[in-house]
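Predict structure. Chain length: 464.
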Amino acid sequence: MTSYAKHVNHDVSPMACPVHLDDVDLFGDGAQEHWYEAYEILHRDSPVHRIDGGGLTPGTDAFVLTKHADITQVVKDPVRFPSVTTMRLGKLVDQGLSGEEIYAAHNSLMTASMATLRPTQELYFRHRKELTDPWVGPGALRHREMITQHAHSLIDEWIDDRSGAARGFDVEFISRFARPLPQRVMASILGFPIEDIPRLAAWGDAAVTPFVHGSGHRHEMTPEQTEDMVARLDGFQEYIYEHVTAKRDDPQDDMISFLCDVHYEALDRQLTDIEIAGIVHAMILGGLETTQYALEEQAQLLCEHPGTFEQLRGDRSKLRNFVEEAMRMRSPTHGLSTRVTAHDEVFQGVDVPAGSLLHMRFGAANVDDAEFDCPYDLDLDRAGVTRHVTFSTGPRVCPGATLSRLEQQIAWGALLDRVEAIEYGADNDWLHQPGIMFGTLKLNLRVLLADTPLSLGTGRVASS
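Prediction complete.
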């Protein structure tokens, strides 16, 4: 059986590594340590894997899809395979509730906002085009200089803190780079003060609680977990409202000011405060985790493939392919239960009844050998390198995919300019975060600064 990473320590998991189909458990405690071994078994023995009684309604089942062809078919057809979120929002809209009433009932700014802004597929497209694309979609390219400055500023902090070390020193990569970079970038885009990042990070951590600590493929939480999450989110809505009020009075060049002023043509009106708050919540929820874990796993791949860092340092034309290949091999988000079958379907010869919940296993699709030759190999010359489904694909592709890709490429461009080599540092335990995201909780790297830093993207040259 292929081992996806030679440094993974399976002993840290309370779960044994699966050998047979009956051993496979994608959602149990410690499952993350064995996901890729499980995917090989599922691809071979059960590419459409039934979860008895796992549907949204009594008497219905859920099915785990692991093949690239099946998942792309589903996500590209929101009519045949409607979104669970869209279905729930439709029911809320039918009740005629206001955004504030929905928030009071469901404790979700995103749900409250989406119910009034995009209850239909057509409005979803308009929402993206008019409200988010200018900032985190195609319009994200205007943030290049800002992202570059944040990346180099973080590297400057390493250099300032190396405590007398010369060129080589240890860095905890996640807390010192992979996590703060997307935090600073998103704060800058939204127009929040950088000094507020600790509070924003705490609220972001609370918001993703279901996807980290929820159980099973439906991310179900206990009443105690829900109560704790709501308590940790206390003050978040008020914080956003304070900034909305301030930016209505004194607009700046940031996304919140834009949302306060924009005339949403799809509904022929301006946005309400709670609608703006919901969009901001979505940006914080989706704009941090994916990029953090992508950068962290990319650092591991570079450590595990000697010579690749040096190759990229000498040939930046390979950097885009490296980022795409790394996201394919180590998907930040491994699976979501977000679609339902509107009709009876057949996947890989398996009958899937109408009304079944589909858990799309993006991480498995990205290493499907029916789609990718030698899927566990890092191939910087791979054709069609963006065929992976890390950001999903089709009409509901992740709205921030352009921003995340840009952050990753700029981040490694800055590191390649100023660092000559990286390798694993001491005291790594390889333990992954629980839930559906894929990334270790810490990553110690040994960094060797370049004697002569290369010319930086901002036009200056770094000093060591």
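Summary: The longest strand covers residues 419-424.
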